[in-house]
Amino acid sequence: MGVMRIGHANLKVMDIEAALRHYERVLGMKETMRDDAGNVYLKCWDEWDKYSVILTPSDQAGLQHLAYKVEHDADLDSLQQRVEAYGIATEMLPDGALPAIGRTLKFALPSGHEIRLYAHKEQVGTSVGSLNPDPWPDDIPGSAVHWLDHCLLMCELNPETGVNRVAENTRFMRECLDFHLAEQVMVGSGNSIQAATWMFRSSTPHDIAFVGGPRNGLHHIAFFLDDWADVLKSADVMAKNKVKMDVAPTRHGITRGTTIYFFDPSGNRNETFAGLGYLAQPDRPVTTWTEDQLGRGIFYHSGELNEAFTTVYT
Ligand code: M3P
Ligand code: FE
Q: For residue 280, what pLDDT is reported?
């Protein structure tokens, strides 16, 4: 099958204990291990693999790498050939290069963001288990997010020089990793510039998204909640914990998610969002948003983009 879903995000954080408190108390994740280099590994209650976030001590915030899980070990070999044939250098890291995961294919997207693909990660089970499980566990603090759902990468876009890493990444994901395009934003004269894309391998509208901006970076990592009431509760949790909220609860036109954006203590943006959006199927016609309707696409109710939303990121 190739890529199945997002596997983990490795975030750089400036204060590891403050970051850990945030991901534990505000999101409701659990620490599952630490390594000698001081990295902390966490998972959400509804995930069965050992971790979906790695916090790495650093002097700056941002994304170190983003990992996706493939279905079969042999997928790593066929994808390596395809990525190399596309003209992108790869490296196969040995089993255990990262704790608890098997051999890993490492390469950079055309935008320079580091991607890793792996087939095996130690399974520790969800918090409700797999035998006659309850629908939700007790004693999960904060927003009690289900799983890491997607990541949005900011990609250099400069219509004057013609640099468009959004379009380059989108083409690469489609041609090499068999991602499907769910939605796109087209801007410029004749709506000819692909300024943002939402792409999937699973059955939800996006497993990864790319948005054009002044430089490459991380816009946000997003965690899944069941419904709008959970999004409201998540906002309450943020207010209680004095978390800096970027956008109060609202709805995206794009992907239809109900959502909140906020920051971890290092300034990495998080999103908690709810709803399937729609069942994303490979033959679904691509949804296009034009520049004049972009505000509604991003924030459906206000129809207005706040400047900081696409200019402030790590
Ligand atoms: C989402 C989403 C931007 C749009 C973001 C949309 C950064 O996060 O989950 O659909 O313009
Ligand atoms: Fe998102």
A: 96
